[in-house]
């Protein structure tokens, strides 16, 4: 979590007509969707009713541990990233509700990844002595029964120079008490917390603020986790690293996957500007190989501090997410968020600051994952896993099309005129549902259909600022 993100370079280059992307294995068949600030009971309901049936692979949930309560600031979203203990009682629910959510999502075929805050505790101005969301009292550097003064680094000032790696890893991020993650006591405390979650069925972690910890500290904590019960799998770990000239994403790949922040700059700018052809050789422009990268169009930080495209950009945003789910680079991470105008605003809340139930019928909850284009492309992503990029086509500007082996094909049009074209695919002959406009239900398509010939060719007219997507799982 960065309350102030560094500016990200988003320069765009020329397109290549040669497909350059090779598929890699994802941790789950469907995409990860960050259910930002959703309460536990609402996530459980959404896993069973929508996410599982539509082919989403995992939910990333907000930090579940006790946090500060900033009522005088209107209960902002970032209070959840200031832990005061590791008891499972946040504004989204308690331990029992969390455990029930994990069971329900797992039963629906949706894994649960927890946003893990291990770099720091609370800031000095954060309602200095509590109580926290679970009733605990505390002071900065003194969290009774958890940490004392000796468990924090001695540089007790904000990071002043991001070109000094020692400062970045030992001084304080916006006043947050910086844990001495090299300490055996700190590591063992965090390992116990994380293993408690794994024991409840949590399948992985998004690790917050990783560049503020040495790679070996992160590895010592997350490398000590138990296997996930029932599956025997290692917990999936992906680390938030906003790379710069001092800290590179590649420094942390030995611990797990890493967020590729360069991706959203390149892809979101291309869709915003209608310059899609230059995405042909996208992997060559990234800092990480596909099998180590987690990619996104927006997340809760970029939405607020460095937005390019967000839910506020309508179909242009949806098409960029469709590309993310179709193109074989990285593990896609989506977001389902709440509406905001104030960048500090928290989720819809009761008078005491606890989060209201999330409902996609309530406009306060954006529910990007339920938008038809995005929901349809979740199934596309699952259907084409393990296939390579084939049959790339572009017009040199804002119109592109490409296939994923013999499993899927997508065409995207970000120009003002219709894209009318005979496309060459590698799909088997037959009638396909366009999953951007509908789905296959009881043997028929609820949206448009496309007829693919024996030679894999088909004719299509793609309206301005729209797309079509075909895959073998939605074939009549």
Automatic annotation (TrEMBL):
Keywords: Calcium, Carbohydrate metabolism, Glycosidase, Hydrolase, Metal-binding, Signal
Class in the EC hierarchy, top level: hydrolase
The protein's required cofactors: Ca(2+)
Enzyme Commission number: 3.2.1.1
Residues covered by the Alpha-amylase C-terminal domain: 390-475
Domain Glycosyl hydrolase family 13 catalytic: 30-381
A Pfam family this chain is assigned to: Alpha-amylase_C
KW GTP-binding (keyword) present: no
InterPro entries the record matches: A-amylase/branching_C (IPR006048), A-amylase_C (IPR031319), Alpha_amylase (IPR006046), GH (IPR017853), GH13_cat_dom (IPR006047), Glyco_hydro_b (IPR013780)
Leader peptide range in chain numbering: 1-20
SUPFAM superfamilies to which the protein is assigned, alphabetical: (Trans)glycosidases, Glycosyl hydrolase domain
UniProt catalytic activity: Endohydrolysis of (1->4)-alpha-D-glucosidic linkages in polysaccharides containing three or more (1->4)-alpha-linked D-glucose units
Similarity section: Belongs to the glycosyl hydrolase 13 family.
Record PANTHER family: ALPHA-AMYLASE (PTHR43447)
Protein name: Alpha-amylase
Organism: Saccharopolyspora oryzae
């Amino acid at each position: 979590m960065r309350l102030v993100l560094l500016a990200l370079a988003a320069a765009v280059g020329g397109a290549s007509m040669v497909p350059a992307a090779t598929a890699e294995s994802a941790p789950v068949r469907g995409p990860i969707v960050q259910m930002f600030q959703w309460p536990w009971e609402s996530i459980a309901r959404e896993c069973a009713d929508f996410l599982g049936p539509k082919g989403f692979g995992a939910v990333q949930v907000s930090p579940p541990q006790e946090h500060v309560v900033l009522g005088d600031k209107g209960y902002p979203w970032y209070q959840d990233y200031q832990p005061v203990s590791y008891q499972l009682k946040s504004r989204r629910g308690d331990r029992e509700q969390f455990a029930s959510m994990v069971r329900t999502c797992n039963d629906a075929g949706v894994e649960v990844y927890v946003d893990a805050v291990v770099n720091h505790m609370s800031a000095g101005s954060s309602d200095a002595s509590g109580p926290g969301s679970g009733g605990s009292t505390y002071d900065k550097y003194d969290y009774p029964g958890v940490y004392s003064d000796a468990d924090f680094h001695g540089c007790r000032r904000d990071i002043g120079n991001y070109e000094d790696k020692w400062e970045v890893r030992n001084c304080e991020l916006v006043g947050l008490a910086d844990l001495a993650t090299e300490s055996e006591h700190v590591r063992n405390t965090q390992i116990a917390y994380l293993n408690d979650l794994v024991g409840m069925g949590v399948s992985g972690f998004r690790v917050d603020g990783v560049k503020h910890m040495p790679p070996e500290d992160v590895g010592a904590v997350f490398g000590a986790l138990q296997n996930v019960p029932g599956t025997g799998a290692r917990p999936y770990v992906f680390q938030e690293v906003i790379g710069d000239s001092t800290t590179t994403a590649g420094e942390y790949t030995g611990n797990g996957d890493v967020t590729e922040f360069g991706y959203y700059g390149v892809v979101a700018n291309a869709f915003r500007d209608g310059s899609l052809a230059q995405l042909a050789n996208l992997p060559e422009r990234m800092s990480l190989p596909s099998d180590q990268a987690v990619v996104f169009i927006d997340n809760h930080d970029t939405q607020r501090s460095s937005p390019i495209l967000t839910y506020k950009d309508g179909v242009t945003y949806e098409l960029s997410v469709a590309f993310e789910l179709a193109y074989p680079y990285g593990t896609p991470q989506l977001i389902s968020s709440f509406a905001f105008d104030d960048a500090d605003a928290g989720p819809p809340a009761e008078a005491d600051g606890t989060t209201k139930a999330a409902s996609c019928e309530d406009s306060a909850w954006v529910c990007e994952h339920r938008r038809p284009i995005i929901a349809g492309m979740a199934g596309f992503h699952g259907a084409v896993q393990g296939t390579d990029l084939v049959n790339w086509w572009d017009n040199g500007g804002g119109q592109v099309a490409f296939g994923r082996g013999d499993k899927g094909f997508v065409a995207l049009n970000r120009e003002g005129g219709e894209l009318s074209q005979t496309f060459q695919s590698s799909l088997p002959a037959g009638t396909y549902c366009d999953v951007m406009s509908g789905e296959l239900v009881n043997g028929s398509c609820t949206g448009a259909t496309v007829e693919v010939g024996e030679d894999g060719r088909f004719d299509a007219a793609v309206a301005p600022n729209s797309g079509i997507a075909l895959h073998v799982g939605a074939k009549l």
